[in-house]
Queue: 2 jobs
Job 1
Amino acid sequence: MSARYGMVIDVDRCTGCGACMVACSAENNVPALPQATARTGLTPLLVRTVANRAQGAARREAFIPIMCMHCEHETPCVSVCPQQAVEVDKATGIVMQMPQRCLGCRYCMTACPYHARYFNWWDPAWPAGMEKSLNPGVAVRMRGVVEKCNLCHARLHSAKEKAAAAGKREIDPADYIPACVEACPTAAIRFGNLSDRNDPVSQEANSPEAFRLLARLGTEPKVYYKSKEAWVRALAQSSSGRSSEPGSESQPAEVQHG
Amino acid sequence: MASATVADSRVADGKWIARGAERTSLPRFLLWLSPWAVVLAAGVYAAGLCLYYGLNQTNMDNRFAFGLWIFLDLGMIALGAGAFFTGFLVYILKRAELRPILNTAVVVGFICYSGAVAILMIDVGQPLRAWFTFWHPNTHSMLTEVTFCISCYLLVLCLEYIPLLLRNRQLRKLPSFLVFEHQLHKLVPVLAGVGALLSFFHQGSLGGLYGVLRGRPFAFRQGIFIWPSTFFLFILSAIASGPSFLMLVTAAVEKLTGKRLVPVELFRRLGFISGVLLGIYVAAKSIDTLIWINFTSPAVGFAPWQYYMYKPFGTPILFAEIVLFGLLPAFLLTFRPTAERRGWLLSAAALACGGVLLNRFILTVQTLALPTLSFDEFLQYTPSWQEVASFTGVIAYGVIIYSLSYRYLPMFAPAKGEITDVSRH
């Protein structure tokens, strides 16, 4: 049975601690490059800070973790790649990136409306001794290729191997949890099968508080957000919101920090 | 390339220059080439840094993933369209009056396309994997179409350039070269047809590169079948500006050499072709813009005015693109009183070429600078010196190739190979 893996991120629960980013980096062997900047670093998962336009006591802030949204309709990055280095796995709905085949043309980065794709501007490097902490299940990407969140695909492989060893065809959902979901101390990031109506994540994705970023583009992202705050839900809109009156509760957001 | 010229017998490299042609002395020619050689050397060095150390030598980043080089590629390929379009007019539509400009068109096309391919090879993170596109092609990608067509068309341009190269006075002395050139020359009409087909497609696909970007509503366009409207607009704007660019290049060479190289009437003819096509382009672009403003962009949740709220990309840039660099040169190139005056004609041609460059700049740079997420910021990007040096290096490469071609090849001669350019003095 094919799955549609996705996430629901409860923005009201996110404290912006960054544990998800650290877990993502550790799991996926993302190098910590001292020469990288906020615009050239590798952050397959990036927590961005947003605020409403109010001042003083009315000012509110929220944290929005951004990663690949695993779009399932007319996936922008898939159709543009000239050498099929990006594909949507029909069995899981995961948008996969094959660094071994990537030309590094960065056309997919241009196509992604969420800026969730990252280029390896430098050779990967770690401080002496730290290479011993690398995850043996994940290949290190070389300079000159694009990478992004693949929902910790190595963990899916491990879960499949475990199921196969037990003689099962389907994995146990408890065996496949992305690192960011596992690391989040407030359980703000939830992961599940959106095709399964009984999956709590699927139910949350259909709640009135749930929204998706830039949903009107029609790319059907599989990462949902939820919030009780109207101004946070307005983040789903395009950047047209920035022209509204300062302090408007229904309009987002002014700034992001890496 | 200076104005003072001497007969071939008094020039050190005279035996390589076509019989009867007047060219400047070798030292003066080398003096003309030397600054361009320095610029080219700097460009090669900068490109070497990018290839050796990687694209961290540029100021591109994860959001500004394309930069100056993509603008250069799109601009050069648009201006180089004069090559295929002139071949198409001469060999397919039998417009023989354009024949005197044909060799220049081939050389300019070769320079533009080879320069663009060279820059593309620097601009990718893994240049050694370029062949992957041919081995694992994604037939849905506009970039695949661009890669196939540009590679094939560069080959066609090489095959069109070789006969011209073999008409060099010394190379003609080799019988095998003469036979090869003769045989190859017979293929030129076929090559022109193939080149036209390839070029129509890749000019369009370059427009489609951005037009298909659903995630970038500033660039995204509806279209016909699989092709967004930018596919057709790019073809139109390229064939409109290509003849103007040929006119500008020829006029610049005429100025530098002090010779009248092509008939005056040819300029008017090129200007008229350019002006009519530019007029059609402006009309199509205006309709496309109205559809985009009223339907395409609002349908995906983006109010069009928001694209123009960031300096320097305000509405004046839209006005400049359509009116100042579109409608105005179209009028000047086709209105007889202005088209018959060389100054007006060349100014209008420069505006037409400026317009196509502005269009490519807007589509490549403004698209990336604009925010998409509601909490994104408008981005700025300044190219690094390595990017600029590679850029100027390609321009220097073009000047050097053209200069060598002009000096040693019968550029403005009829097919028989005898030079007809004569001094005005």
Job 2
Amino acid sequence: MASEVLVPSSPAEAVELFGDGAETTVVGGGTIVVADISYGRLDPGRVLLLSHAGLDGVSVDGDTVTIGATTPINALLALEEHAAALAACARNLADYEIRGQGTVGGNLCVGANYDAPRGDLQGCLLALDAQVRSAGADGERTEPLEDFLTHRHGRLVLDVSFERPAASAFVALEYPHTHEYTVIAVTGARAADGTTRLAATGVAGPGARLRSAEALASDPAAAGAAAVGDVSFADDALASAWYREQTLPVLVRRVLSQLEESS
Amino acid sequence: MNLTVNGVDTSIESAPLTSLLDVLREELGITSPKAGCEQGGCGTCTVLVDGEPRRSCLTPVAAIDGSAITTVEGLGSPEDMAPIQQAFTHHYAAQCGFCTSGMMMAAQAYIDRGGTDDHEAIQEALGGHVCRCTGYVKIIDAVAATARGESFDVTVTAAGTSMTNLGGVA
């Protein structure tokens, strides 16, 4: 059991107690960390509980949407008019109770090495070109989510923001089962200047951009075929790497056709 | 730490990271929330935290210090059952019973937020709850009946409902 449990009551106190993050386990909603503790996968020493840190809330300023780190997933359902893909991604995530408890920040920080993919929002927010504001050893910084995902350790997420896209679409593999894990999903976002960003969740590791597919966005079939070269695929309890590789082009094609319809 | 559990102010002695499920079952002896999968996937441990349905197995007690908790015991008593409890009994919505507490708490929250008898909406609201007896049809019937405002005259004795209803078959 944890030797020290800290419950900050303001964002500033959370940043101060987090410090350089060394030996500190951050608990947002608890949906991932508490299960890890219960199953003995994690034996935390110093724990920072963010339940009362005041890091939650969504704000919209012009075309900029900013989501606090401990905002629960279900709050994203209200962003339908700002980013349809993000609302659809949130609606697809787990179930009513988990969406009410799990947080956006936790979803961005969850690592790989589970028997099923975690971090459903990562692909969606990559496609939306989200920026992550975080604190840590060298102070506060804001960077693209794509960079943040490569060095999340030792960072405390404060908020994530994105510019409202001209159109966006989210497609997940339909997978009827008693569990609610997402096997694989693709998000596309089109900016006002017509550029398209594509990203996937549930391939291997964290969410990943599909750059080759983006370059071929005007040709959905070619984009789908190219996407498999952008990422690697994992075998896990939900699907084989082979199956994911067959599925990704289909999802890319569907996302691009939905984007076309809503642009 | 303090919790108000089914209307009773209660001081909590467990360690801060103890799950609410363990606090309820082990410290307070309230056993309607079940320890099913203990990783959030089955729904049997669901209770209301300040009116919102939450997985008690995933909730560190320190994160909800000062909150009001409602379990099935707080919905109604055998002599004075809440409508959702009457409906589950009337519709035979419990088979082995292990999922029933969690199902009823999620259903109560769904009713409280104005849920209708639309079956798809009920399925969505109960989507995180697994019934391994697969008795979903009767569960959804019970929630739909409650959403329509129906109540049932269900007689319950200390020996249980079924014995009373079956009259002598015991």
